Amino acid sequence: EPEVTQTPSHQVTQMGQEVILRCVPISNHLYFYWYRQILGQKVEFLVSFYNNEISEKSEIFDDQFSVERPDGSNFTLKIRSTKLEDSAMYFCASRQPTVSSYEQYFGPGTRLTVT
Amino acid sequence: AQKITQTQPGMFVQEKEAVTLDCTYDTSDQSYGLFWYKQPSSGEMIFLIYQGSYDEQNATEGRYSLNFQKARKSANLVISASQLGDSAMYFCAMREIQGYSTLTFGKGTMLLVSP
Predict the structure, then answer these.
(1) CA B36, CA B93: separation in Å to the nearest integer?
(2) Does B34 touch chain A (CB under 8 A)?
(3) A96 contacts in B (CB within 8 Å)?
(4) Spatial CB neighbours of B29, under 8 Å, sequence gap ≥ 6
(5) Which of A71, A85, B97, B101 could form a disulfide with B31 if both were Cys (CB 3.0 to 4.6 A apart)?
(6) What is the secondary structure of A13-71 as a DSSP string?
């Protein structure tokens, strides 16, 4: 069964460093999402991406964040200058392009620890 | 704005018993979808069940059923015949039918199943 994959599973970085989180969505999906979950809290929407551009973003997704689909398979989230409060689990999700398809398939997550 | 409320931070149930996890929502949209996701201790998000706002029948998926009461704006998850493997965090989420299907999550309920 096709699945969303994410690398790395765990990333430790120092405050102020740039990190890139990588996701490979399911191949025939066209809508892509990043969500964040701070430890012990709810999952929060960051950004959605469709047709090679950001379609929606939340207040969390400020200028420090960017997303890119550099090729036909990868979908990346970049944090330019990490802060302690960026420590969280980051989930990538993807969805089929049809109106009737509702389910977002989540990847296993990348745990980001900023020290 | 959409809002999801899960009032039970934790629930306990004995193996083989049924359990109901509460979820209420608030939206001004006429069309929306409601989801339940399971998050085991390993961290991944597992889709369980979906209910569309115009679906007349309650959704069921194996041991999971969604008790949808539109007038009360509630979408409770019922797990029948609980198993030890059901111990996990459970999140209720909602999306708009229009737009890019961003999910709004509740804070979650931790379910512990005892032998």
Answers:
(1) 6
(2) no
(3) none
(4) B2, B53, B96, B97, B98
(5) B97
(6) E-TT--EEEEEE--TT--EEEEEEE-TTS-EEEEEEEETTEEEEE-TT--TTEEEE--S
Q: Rounded CA gap, A111 and A114, in Å? A: 10
- Residues paired with residue A113 on neighbouring β-strands, in sequence order: A12
Put simply, the answer to whether A109 touches B43 (Cβ < 8 Å) is yes
Q: Which structure tokens are listed for B106?
A: 């509740």
The model's pLDDT over A65-100, given as tens digits with 9 standing for 90+, comes to: 999 998 878 999 999 999 999 999 999 999 887 666
Residues in a beta bridge with A35: A45, A91
Put simply, the answer to whether B104 touches A45 (Cβ < 8 Å) is yes
**DSSP helix, strand, coil percent of chain B (3-state; round to 5):** 5, 55, 45
Average the pLDDT over B64-92 and give the result.
96
* pLDDT, tens digit (0-9, with 9 covering 90-100), for A40-72: 888 999 999 998 899 999 999 999 999 999 887
Is B32 touching A (CB cutoff 8 A)? no
d(CA A83, CA A53): 25
**CB count in 10 Å sphere of residue B29:** 14
Q: How many Cβ contacts (< 8 angstroms) between chains A and B?
A: 59
Strands B60-61 and B64-69, by their bridges, are antiparallel
